[in-house]
Amino acid sequence: MPEWKKPLPTVSGETRPFWEACRRGELLIQKCNSCGEYQWYPRGICANCWTSDIAWVKASGKGTVWTCTVTYQNRTAGFAEEGPYVLALVELEEGVKMFTNIVQCNPRDVKIGMPVEVTFVQATDQISVPYFKPAQ
Amino acid sequence: MVDLSRAAAIVGIYEHPTRYAPDKSELQIQGESAIKALEDAGLSKKDVDGLFTSSSTVRMSGLNLADYLNLYPKYVDNTSVGGASFEFHLSHALTAIAAGRINCALITYSSQARSGGVSIGTGGIGRFGHPVLEPSPDSFEELYGFTTVGLYAMIAQRHTHLYGTRPEQLAEVAVAVRKHASMNPYALFRNPIGIEDVVTSRMISSPLHILDCCVITDGGGAVVVASPEVARSCKQRPVSVLGVGESVAHQGAGQRDLVYIAARQSHGSAFDMAGVTHEDIDMCMIYDSFTITVLTTLEDLGFCEKGEGGDFVSGGRLQIGGGLPVNTDGGGLSSNHPGMRGIFLLLEATRQLRHEFEGTPRQVPDCKIALCHGTGGALGSRHSGGTVILGRD
Predict the structure, then answer these.
(1) Is B206 touching A (CB cutoff 8 A)?
(2) What's the domain range around A46?
């Protein structure tokens, strides 16, 4: 496994189930047992109805590109040396939008509305990062 | 609600001329600005009873500024919502003055982003010189290499997709603002540019080129806001606060459409309070972190329909002499941008309403009412919006 130079997430009580699922190759999102709404990013309360009765559910891992940009400049370690990459908001089938990169394709080929699916890259023993790639 | 319109006025201003000041301290630039702004008003240190400030680098900025200036204010507010902080401060100062809590508010700001080598737009995790990787929500953004410019570029891309907005239309904003900068001796960049220069400049994050992005400078300034009673004794013609509005916009748990920005919520109360309509506005100071910021802000302020911003800004409409002059000081795109530019919107609007440039091409003719709108944070993730309407009575 090559050395991971990019930022790593802070795993907290709120997000531990999410990162543990990523290691298994599963993308989890939260759904409120009380109001039924999905939410992204993960948090300890339901952002809609403010109850704490939230469940982790497995997302289909499929979605579409809601918006994207090819970024040519970022001084952060791990990105500074990487060359152009795609920042995107992907709208999951479940209806929530999450930040990600679109990988395994030419950055200039990524378009809004494009179907994409989740893929995981192991960063460390503890962390696998979910990305999205063009749907097969 | 208590009628806040005209309950306070801007009576003193100062924009620090520096764009690069490595030998000064952040608080020194604010101190120098505060002294000059009070001089401008004909007031003194002992008149100040409210202190308003915000900083990306000074912790507990209201407390540390009071210490540096040796002030004992009875009202301190370091509301920090990014570049719009100073529109929020003016709004809060208006309320505090109307309530009788204070009579004279001092609002100050400075930053040394340029001498500190801060990559505001492209620094990613290190953009303010310290990590912003926090448990939530940033741990789900920084690991993907999100930058400030990237977050704005995503909104520009979505806007383009939905409404057919073209790079040449975004460029109109940069061209108009640079033309104004050419009349400002303190502006960082003063050489005129054309649309072709913008759209052929280096791409930073598609569709935003380097000339779609604001400059990075040092700088600072101060605003003195006073009750109508105090204002009557001041040296300068007061500029009344007619209306204010505040709002935030964010991801809404992953469900919000961020093409609609905070200006959509903040402008209504500002117009209602002021009792004016869009036709009454003689000029605007719109936070121009990037060209897309201006285009989409004008839409969500209601100057045109959503999606029509590209056509609206075209044909030189934003230039002095056009239909709606915007950023007549050269804006963040060309004059200065130390990181949180909101205070400079208030400074230039006040200069225009005082008719400080009368007899020169920089003066908006017969300028009576100006609108300022600050945006703080990033359009693509979470941001603040502060609208202020000012009037020459």
Answers:
(1) yes
(2) 11-58
- Is B147 close to A71, i.e. CB distance below 8 A? yes
Hey, which residues 25-44 in chain A have their CB within 8 Å of chain B?
37-43
E strand or H helix at A130: strand A128-134
DSSP class of residue B254 equals G
Å from A136 to nearest chain B CA? 22
Cα distances from A43 to residues B72, B137, B165, B186, in angstroms, run 41, 9, 36, 47
Q: Which residue of chain B has the CA closest to A128?
A: B143
Check if the beta carbon of residue A85 is closer than 8 Å to that of residue A71: yes
- Quote the CA–CA distance of B225 and B50 in Å, as a whole number: 9
Is residue B129 domain-resident? no
Domain count of chain B? 2
* Count: domains in chain A: 2
Q: Which has the closest alpha carbon to B186: B27, B42, B348, B380? A: B348
Q: Could you report the per-residue pLDDT of B294-347, keeping only the tens digit for each? A: 999 999 999 999 999 999 999 999 999 999 999 999 999 999 999 999 999 999
Task: Give the HSE-up count for residue B230: Cα atoms under 13 Å, Cβ half-sphere.
Answer: 26
The number of helices, as runs of H, and strands, as runs of E, in chain B is: 11, 11
Whether the per-residue pLDDT at B368 is higher than 80: the answer is yes
pTM summary value: 0.97
Q: Does B305 touch chain A (CB under 8 A)?
A: no
- CB contacts of A72 in chain B (<8 Å) are 202-205
Distance CA B74, CA B76 (A): 7
Interface test with B, best of A35, A71, A103, A127 (most B CBs within 10 A): A71
Question: How far, in Å, CA of B317 to CA of B329, rounded?
Answer: 16
Q: What is the interface size between A and B, counted as CB pairs within 8 Å?
A: 138
Range of the domain at B375: 135-217+243-392
Q: How confident is the model at residue A103 (pLDDT cuts 50, 70, 90)?
A: very high
B122 closest CB neighbour out of A67, A73, A112: A73
With CB atoms and an 8 Å threshold, state whether A87 touches B154.
Answer: yes
Does residue A70 contact residue A107 with C-beta atoms inside 8 Å? yes
Q: Predicted ipTM?
A: 0.97
Q: In terms of residues, how long is chain A?
A: 136
**Does the structure show a pLDDT above 70 at B170?**
yes
How far is residue A14's CA from residue B349's CA, in Å, rounded to a whole number? Answer: 46
B156 to A75: CB separation less than 8 angstroms, yes or no = no
Q: How far does B379 lie from chain A, in Å, by closest CA?
A: 13
Element (H, E) at B303: none
Q: Same domain for B213 and B223?
A: no
The tokens describing B238, both together, are 């007061």
- The answer on B326 and B365 residing in a single domain is yes
Cβ pair B372, B379 in contact under 8 A: no
